[in-house]
Design brief:
single chain; Rossmann fold; Arc Repressor Mutant, subunit A; 2 domains; 4-stranded antiparallel beta sheet; 20% strand
């Protein structure tokens, strides 16, 4: 799978639970990465930049609650939704988890179907196109289900790579993406592509967006990358 498919990081020290979650998330079409303890989890977050983290509270080494606290205090990771898993069902524990920054809190034992629904719910916030939603920016409309893009109600001709680039930009207007971040999001980490290839496809995207007139909505940020608006 490529980064077209959202990446879910499962942090769970019980192998059987980890395997069940991985299997079901894969079946839903997600890229799945796993970690068995807190220290591995922190490394994985840096390596794979997950879209959602499913995080067990009780972990060997660094606890889940501490991982949550660290990730939510870093500017580079605070926007990643965290679903906390815990056998602690008391209200005080749930409140503590949420106050530490968890976006959702699920008590064990849980229904896998319910957890998958909660993952989808978090993805709708951070990767709306992956959830099948239509994205809109000024006069540009992107339909993620039909892969159609229109501007001023006129259909644009975009290749698959340009479509994925535009999706990334439209999901986070104003965000500055470095070439490396775009390579990871659009091409995936397992594929070697020269960073200059990004510039080529940005040029193609700009041409396509201005095919029927209108100003170029993409902005080059010197020394940093590209942004929409």
């Amino acid at each position: 799978m490529t980064k077209d498919h959202p990446t879910v990081l499962v942090v769970e020290d019980e192998p059987a639970q980890r395997e069940v979650l991985s299997y079901n998330l894969h079946a839903e079409g997600y890229n799945v990465e796993t970690a068995g303890d807190g220290d591995d989890a922190l490394l994985m977050v840096e390596e794979v930049a997950p879209d959602v983290i499913v995080l067990d509270w009780m972990l060997p080494g660094t606890s889940g609650i501490e991982i949550c606290r660290r990730l939510k205090t870093r500017s580079s990771t605070k926007g990643i939704p965290i679903i906390m898993l815990s056998a602690r069902s008391e209200e005080v524990d749930r409140v503590r988890g949420l106050e530490t920054g968890a976006d959702d809190y699920v008590v064990k034992p849980y229904s896998v179907m319910e957890l998958l629904a909660r993952v989808r719910n978090q993805l709708r916030r951070v990767r709306p196109a992956a959830a099948g939603q239509t994205l809109e920016y000024q006069d540009i409309l992107l339909d993620s289900e039909t892969h159609r893009v229109t501007r001023q109600d006129k259909l644009l001709k975009l290749g698959p790579t340009e479509f994925r680039l535009l999706t990334a930009f439209m999901e986070k207007p104003g965000r500055v993406w470095s070439r490396e971040q775009l390579l990871d999001r659009v091409w995936g980490r397992d594929i070697y592509v020269d960073s200059r290839t990004v510039d080529v496809h940005i040029g193609r995207l700009r041409k396509a967006l201005c095919e029927h007139g209108g100003e170029d909505p993409l902005r080059t940020v010197r020394g940093a990358g590209y942004a929409l608006g």
